[in-house]
């Protein structure tokens, strides 16, 4: 897969992803995605994007109260 931002090759990984969700930064492990080592762009297949969203919702619900 080529990076949509810079055109470099992207590598597939399942490293933990840190995302801003509803004003909080949450970490979600184990979702397959692509990362561009040249510009740090991240991309997902459609089914993995759905998994990411589901895991973010779950992580948001169980986060410690602030």
Write up what this structure looks like.
This protein is of the alpha+beta class. It is built from one helix and five strands; from the N terminus they run βββββα. The chain has one helix at residues 46-62, and strands at residues 10-13, 17-21, 24-28, 33-36, 42-43. The strands form two sheets. It has a three-stranded antiparallel β-sheet, with no helix packed on it. A hairpin with a 2-residue loop joins β2 and β3 (24-28). The protein is elongated and about 40 Å long. The model has no long low-confidence stretch (mean pLDDT 94).
Salient structural properties:
66 residues; alpha+beta; three-stranded antiparallel β-sheet; two-stranded antiparallel ribbon; 26% helix; 30% strand; elongated
């Amino acid at each position: 897969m080529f990076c949509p931002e810079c055109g470099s090759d992207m590598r597939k990984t399942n490293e933990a992803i840190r995302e801003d969700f509803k004003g909080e930064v949450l970490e979600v492990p184990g979702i397959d995605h692509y990362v561009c080592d040249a510009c740090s762009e991240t991309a997902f297949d459609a089914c993995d994007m759905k998994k990411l969203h589901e895991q973010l919702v779950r992580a948001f619900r169980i986060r410690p109260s602030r």
